[in-house]
Amino acid sequence: MMISKAMNTSLNRQIANEMNASHKYLAMAYCFEDMGLKIFARRFNQQADEERGHALKIARFIQDVGGSVVFEGLDKPKSDYKTAKQIVQAAVDSELTVTSQINDLVAQAEKERDYATRSFLQWFVDEQVEEVSSMTELLKLVTMAGEQYLFQLEGRLMAMMSAKSD
Ligand code: FEO
């Protein structure tokens, strides 16, 4: 095995963190759906898929370096948000939490002189910059629009989503 047992455990923990993030986004997507905000719901569904992808990317790496993948149970996500702004604020907070989890993993890899894991984690470091930035931008837009103008904001959100997938 190319990584330490401790690193294997930390990476498995991060798989659970990413799966929990995915689950959280899914719950948020359905809250948007309940509010009649279909495009917000689609954006958050898409984000849930991305988070699941992050978990699987870590699982793949663990396999590649000869470790063993262990899945944990999921936490129950919050699903009683009252406003769209509350949801987007929770998404920003969640991305900041994941950023600090990734930073902890990087610190561990550097401490262990585990350069394979350090190199692998760089993708996540960069991804977090993108995700914190795009959620923060969305929070600004939601705050600026106010709850009653969110339907108009959906058009803008759709454009942002298609620009991202280009
Ligand atoms: Fe995989 Fe948005 O953190």
* Named CATH topology: Ferritin
Instruction: Please trace the helix and strand order, writing H or E for each element.
Output: HHHHH
Q: What is the CATH class designation? A: Mainly Alpha
How confident overall, as mean pLDDT?
96
Question: How much strand?
Answer: under 5%
Uncertain runs: none
Could you give me the name of the CATH homologous superfamily? Ferritin, core subunit, four-helix bundle
Report the strand count.
0
Bound molecules: MU-OXO-diiron
- Principal-axis shape equals elongated
- Using only C-alpha atoms, the radius of gyration works out to 17 Å
Summarize the amount of helix as a percent range. over 70%
**Helix vs. strand class:** mainly alpha
Per DSSP, the total helix count is 5
Write up what this structure looks like:
The chain is mostly helical and 166 residues long. It has one domain (5-165): Ferritin (Up-down Bundle), CATH 1.20.1260. 80% of the residues lie in helices and 0% in strands. The chain has five helices and no strands. Helix 1 (5-35) runs antiparallel to helix 3 (84-111) and helix 2 runs parallel beside helix 5 (150-165). It is elongated. The structure holds MU-OXO-diiron.
Distinctive features:
elongated, binds MU-OXO-diiron, 166 residues, Ferritin, mainly alpha
Summarize the structure.
The chain is mainly alpha-helical and 166 residues long. It has helices at residues 5-35, 38-64, 84-111, 115-145, 150-165. It has one domain (5-165): Ferritin, core subunit, four-helix bundle (Ferritin, Up-down Bundle).
